[in-house]
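Appendix B: complex inputs.
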Amino acid sequence: MDAAALTSRFPATQDLAGKDMPTFRVAGSDLLAVVSALRDEQGFDLLADLCGLELQGRPVRFGVVIHLLSTTHKEYVRLHVDAVNDRVPSVSSLHPGANWHEREAFDMFGIVFEGHPDPRRILMWDSYPYHPLRKDFPLAGIEVPFPAADVAEVTGQKVEPAPMMGGPFVSHGGKLSEGEPSALDQSWTEEKPKA
Amino acid sequence: MVKSDFGYNSKVEGEVIVTRADAVVNWVRSNSVWPMPMGLACCAIELMAAGGSRFDISRFGMEVMRFSPRQADCMIVAGTVTYKMAEVVRRIYDQMAEPKWVVAMGACASTGGMYRSYATLQGVDNIVPVDIYISGCPPRPEALLDGMMLLQEKIRQEGGSLRRTFRGRTVETKIVS
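Resulting structure:
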């Protein structure tokens, strides 16, 4: 891994001094060129993972993390990209394996991957109106119409918030960990509405 | 076996058994349940084990698993039903010919189980009428067999019509003989 070559060629790229693997913050405008250079010049030929994340307390709300693996040098590299205006260029043209990962990040966070060949949801149904892994989305869910109108007519079923009261993930001992913000959401029950 | 006048006596009845049509129909139905394995999660693995040689569901006349809903009369919902899949489960149920029964196998199919989340249907009885609920996460094959034997018992006690309630409404299917 030649970090100097990368940072000198792409001045907007910042070395984050990752403890487990080389880590860089890459500008969205440079992303395709950086991934392409890593693949063709430094041997990072396998996209191991691509995931979205919500960054609390930072000016840009969403980001994407890409892990690349070099099958020749047996080495990983991690790239952070900020999703400015919730948009990130798609790397599906360079690594076809990114296709479904990017669809999942779009489905769960609403990050739009520009240039994606098939920008549909992958886990939730197409007409679902929310992005469930956002921090402002309650764990229990939000009521929306049932996916199929004809089945909803017969069954009267709606997509309802799941009951949390007495459920297996409801913590009764208060806040368990300072480092686990998502646990706060479990204070929500039928009797005590979400703040 | 001691023969007595109170039991079946071929001399008295002339080798004719007199019974009710319902009883015969129910006896036939209960001993040839053709399940439709709606395997959606890990419960389906236990369902497969129940069909294997060790547990051998064919001892109860239910080994004819049919993956086509039109050839099955008992849907075994084995696993987590997500809202995205719920539509499919209901459509497959609609395609099964009457009379038909539904078994909710395991915690997820019965109540949503541990998946209290935005994506999971909280019990398959929200979209289809369920006859038997089997507890467990996942239930062992013995529990499935016990539930299926309970279903056989229920089939044997059914009257001349199949009457079931679903979300406050009564759905009735008449037996045409």
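The interface with chain B takes residues 123-125, 132, 137-142, 146-148, 151, 154-157, 159-164, 167-169 of chain A (CB under 8 Å).
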